[in-house]
Every structure is written in C-alpha cells, then in structure tokens.
Design a protein that fits this description.
Blueprint: H1 2-28, E1 65-70, H2 86-104, E2 108-111, H3 121-131, E3 135-142, E4 154-158, H4 165-175, E5 179-180, E6 183-184, H5 199-218, E7 231-233, E8 245-252, H6 256-262, H7 265-287
Parallel strand pairs: 1-2, 1-3, 3-8, 4-7
Antiparallel strand pairs: 4-8, 5-6
Length: about 290
C-alpha cells in the first residue's frame, strides 16, 4: 500500500507543481513574460484597415468584375497646386465610371476607395487580385511644367521600361506615392524582368494592351488625347501578375482647358462613357470563342 502511494505521488506531484506555477503566473505574472524575444515593428498605417470594398452590381458571381482605382487620396493629394487636387478629380471620375457601368448592367464594380483615404500602391492592385477582378483601371490626372501646353489624356499599360521619357517620368511620379516625407512606406521591386515574366503575366499584359487600344478607339472624337497610341511604363500600381490593368491619365490638371473639363459633370460623363464602352467591348470580345481553341 505504501509502495503504491509512493508511486502515485511521484507522478502526480510534478503535475501539481506545474499547474500551480501556471496559475500563479496567470494571476501575478507580467503580460508577455517569457516571450521577450518577439520584436514588434510599427509600420506606417494605411487607411483601408485591410477590408475589401463592396462589390456592386449583379449578384451573379460569373459576371465580370471591374475594380476602379481612384489615384492618390488621404495625405497624398497628387497633382494640383491650386484649390482642386488630383485626388478629388480621380475620385469623382471613378464614381462616374462606376455609375456608368452599373447603369448598363451585366458588370460588377468595386472601387479601391470611395472616400478620401490613403492607400499604398500595392494595396490597390492587391484589392483587385483578392476580389478576383477581371479588369483593373487606375484613374489619374497629370501635371507638367508650366508653359509646355501639354493637354489631353494618355493610356498606359505595364512595361519594364517607359515607352518614352514622358512615360518614365510619369511612372516615377506615381510610384513615389508610396513615399511620404522621404520615408518609403513599402519596398518595391525594380522594373519587371522580362525573362521572369510567366505566362499569366504575358496574357494579362496582352489583354491590358487590348483594353488600352479600345479606350483610344472609343475616345476618338470624344476625348482629347495627347498620345494617339497606347503608352507603357513601370507603374507599380499595374504590377498585378494576373489581372489585365491600365492606367488612364485623364488630362493635365495645370492646363486650364483640361482642368475645366475634368472638373465638370459633362467632362467626367464623357470619360465615363468612353471607358465604359471600351470595357464592355473588351468583355464582349473575351466572351466570343476564339478560332482554334
């Protein structure tokens, strides 16, 4: 009997001691004690809180989804030295395009932002990817040195290098939106290395160029274009590997004619109708079976 009791105590006593230690630590111990090797790094916050935007339009998930990105926002006003800032114009144009697509039906739509909030560039195209978007279009308004007379819209797609000096300058300016007071909010990779681009990226690029061509075609006679052909640049916001993406520079905010057009209901309506028609034609083409497939 004594031997049996002795064996029970040998096994039970350590368990009881351990349980007592845990209880005491829970009551009196300092929070996080024993985990002091964990380092907490505070990152500059964005304003979206990690939440995905609402998808509007048909409830049928098989319908194509367009994610519209209003460039800049929040503490990043974008271009504009006067009272009107780029972030205001881009949001107004994004909403106009959203409403135009919803009026036509058959297309689902989401905005990366529907208010004055800041988003880092990777958040913008990652929203499109996480939502499973079929198209991503980022809307901007350019600015240039005074006296150049620069005017009109330009449509950009992704490339590892800009198609010209203007495109490279534009990409540098837009990519700098992830830098505030000289501090990079998020490290970005260098220009996409063409040898590492996989089939998905090539297909997305091809479809991006198709949409860009359609925008130029549908805008003929309705919108002023600075460049009559699609341009390309190393825009971070276009670097989704699997979502066809274009950047639409609507005009020059420091050109009085462009500013008046972009800041008017009629001007934004024209842009929305042109982009909306191009998007619908694009989806119609994708729905048609290709010969040999």
């Amino acid at each position: 009997m004594q031997r049996a009791l002795f064996l029970v105590l040998i096994f039970i006593a350590p368990v009881a001691v351990f349980a007592g230690m845990v209880t005491v630590d829970r009551i009196y111990g300092a929070p996080g004690r024993g985990w002091d090797y964990v380092v907490t790094v505070l990152l500059p916050p964005t304003d979206n809180g990690g939440n995905l935007p609402q998808i509007l339009g048909p409830a049928d998930a098989s319908r194509p989804l367009v994610v519209i990105d209003a460039g800049h926002g929040g503490r990043d006003p974008g271009a504009g030295a006067g009272a009107v800032k780029e972030k205001q114009l881009t949001l107004a144009m994004a909403i106009a395009l959203r409403d135009e697509l919803l009026r036509g039906g058959g297309v689902r739509v989401a905005l990366t932002r529907d208010d004055d909030r800041f988003l880092v560039l990777s958040d913008r195209y990652n929203i499109a990817r996480r939502l499973g978007a079929d198209l991503f279009i980022s809307i901007h308004a350019d600015s240039t040195e005074t006296g150049t007379g620069a005017r009109g819209a330009t449509v950009y797609t992704l490339s590892d290098r800009g198609s010209n000096e203007t495109a490279e300058r534009m990409a540098a300016r837009e990519n700098a939106a992830d830098e505030v007071n000289g501090i990079r909010l998020e490290a970005q990779t260098d220009a996409v290395n063409a040898t590492l681009v996989d089939l998905s990226q090539r297909l997305a690029n091809s479809r991006s160029e198709e949409l860009a061509s359609l925008i130029l075609r549908e805008g003929e006679g309705r919108l002023p274009f600075r460049e009559r052909t699609g341009q390309s640049g190393a825009f971070v916001v276009l670097k989704s590997p699997d979502v066809p993406s274009v950047l639409f520079e609507s005009g020059y905010i420091n050109n009085p004619e462009d500013l008046a057009r972009l800041n008017s209901v009629a001007g934004r309506t024209a842009i929305a109708e042109v982009l909306g028609k191009a998007i619908r034609v694009y989806f119609a083409r994708q729905a048609v079976p290709q010969i040999g497939t």
